Structures are given as structure tokens and as C-alpha cells.
Amino acid sequence: MTKIITFLDGSDYTRSVLDHTAWVAEKTGASVDVVHVIGRRQSDTPMDWSGSLELGVRSNLLHELAEHDAQKSRLAQERGKLIVDAGVQHLAAAGVSQAKARLLRGDIVEVLKDIEADADLIVLGKRGEAADFARMHLGSNLERVARVSSKPVMVASRAFKPVNAFMIAYDGGASADKAVDHIAKGKLFPGTPCHLVIAGSDTEQARSRLENANRKLTAAGFETHASLIPGDAEKVIAEYVKANDIGLLVMGAYGHSRIRNFIIGSTTTEMIRSVLIPVM
Fold first, then answer.
1. CB-based burial, 154-170: b 16+ in 10 Å, e otherwise
2. pTM of the predicted protein model
3. Of 123, 164, 146, 92, whose CA–CA distance to 24 is shortest?
């Protein structure tokens, strides 16, 4: 791993996002780009209502609107700079020397597409400033980023805790196999016990897929605990995480059609929402 992109928005998750980033950087030797994106709503010009106003009133109002917009843009710029600079300082204090601040404008998904090519991991918080904690809402940008990114995405939990064991929620699909390959070849997880779990029907095909994935991980030197547990995936995964002191959950990215996910949701989204540990 050579580079991490860490998105900060100044929310309550900021410290945790940075602590998760520092943990990854320490284990992998990666550099970090600390990124804050100033959205269009923070910098766009306001709607022009001047056509329905008298000439004198219109001139004064346009002047006031222009000043207000310029001030709002300046404040967004200053706030963003404070966020990324403080992020770099936090990482430096944690021992991460290769970190730089980046303040960018636009939609976060468009920004991600522009900058992720040379990155190995994206890190962001589970919830942003506007999320409803009481209702367990996810941050408005999280799922968008997780769906479109071509790189692994780590979703930080509310607070960082040492990861003494991790779990792969494995379904035998292409996305899950990609996750297993990434872990087997990467620098982040070696030395950490791995729990490889399939939730669902106990079939010969499921057993075969589980054994193949387990063989790949053990060949890479991992201490593995492989299980096939009947039941609903969301319930099985959540209960296994609690019962086995799992510190991080690894899942394949969204595997079903976007239309199906829109109608009935997805296991990936539900796990990100409900478990109290980071999810990759």
C-alpha cells in the first residue's frame, strides 16, 4: 500500500477517521492525502430573483447578495483549510510523517473519481455533520462513495479501537473473492486473526467456496477461523461480530443491481449502519 485518501468534513467522526488512517499508515507505510471537499452549495452563487424587483431595490439587493456569497465562500475556504491542516497535524502527532492537506471543490463523487487513481484505500466516517444519530442514518455521501469507488473503502466507526481480530463476511461472489485476494496480498492484516464466515444455507457449493477462500488465506500465513452459519446474513454477521470481539468487518462491495438495492436495501448498507466497528 502506498497512498491513503482520507476525507474529512469536520463532523464528530473526524478524530476517529484520522485515528483509523494513522493505524493503516503505521502498518503499511502509506502516505496520506487529507482531503476536505467544499461542496457546490457552500460556494455557488445564490438564485437571482432580481427580475421581479424594482430597479433601485434590485441594485442594492444584488450588491448585498454578492457580498454575502463572497463571505460565505471565504468562510467555507477558511473552515476547510483549518480542517485539513488540523488533520495533518493530528496524523503527524500519531507518527505519520507523509501526510499532506488538500482542499478541493465540487461534488465528492466527482472529486473522488479525479483523485483516486493512485490511491490504495479511501477512508471516511460513517456519518457526517448532517446525519441523524438518533435514527442511525448514514452520512449522505458515504454510500455514494462506497458504490462508485474502484478502491477499497474503510468506513470508520465512532471511535477507534485496536483491531485484535477481523471478520470477512464471505458470500462466494466476485466482490468477496476480490476482498480475500486484497487481504491475502496486503500489508494491513498479517498477524491479525481472521474469521471467515458464510451466512446462509449449508450446501456443498457454499462449503467448497468457503474452503477455497480459507485455503488462500492460510497459504498467505493467516490464522483463520472458517464457519458456515445458517440464517439471515444481516443477523448472523451482527451476532458473530458481538460474540467474537471482532474489531473490523470486511465485506464485498454492493453485489446486486442498483434498482434492487434501492427497493429493498442491501446487506452491505445495513451492516455499515448497524455494526459498531469499522467496515471495509
1. bbbbeebeebebbbbbb
2. 0.82
3. 123
CA gap 198, 117 in Å, rounded: 32
Ramachandran class of 176: left when φ > 0, alpha when ψ lies in -120 to 50, beta otherwise: alpha
- Domain covering 161-274 assigned CATH 3.40.50.620 in the classification: yes
| Ranges of each domain in the chain | 1-160, 161-274
Q: pLDDT under 50 in the chain at which residues?
A: 43, 45-47, 49-50, 131-137, 256-257, 259-265
Q: What's the CA gap between 17 and 22, in Å, rounded?
A: 9
Q: Could you tell me which residues are beta bridge partners of residue 125? A: 156
Edge to edge, the sheet with strand 224-229 lists 224-229, 194-199, 166-169, 248-251
Give the closest residue to 247 by CA, choosing from 173, 168, 182: 168
Give the class (CATH, top level) of 1-160.
alpha beta
Within a 10 A sphere around the Cβ of 229, how many other Cβ atoms? 15
User: What does the chain come to in residues?
Assistant: 280
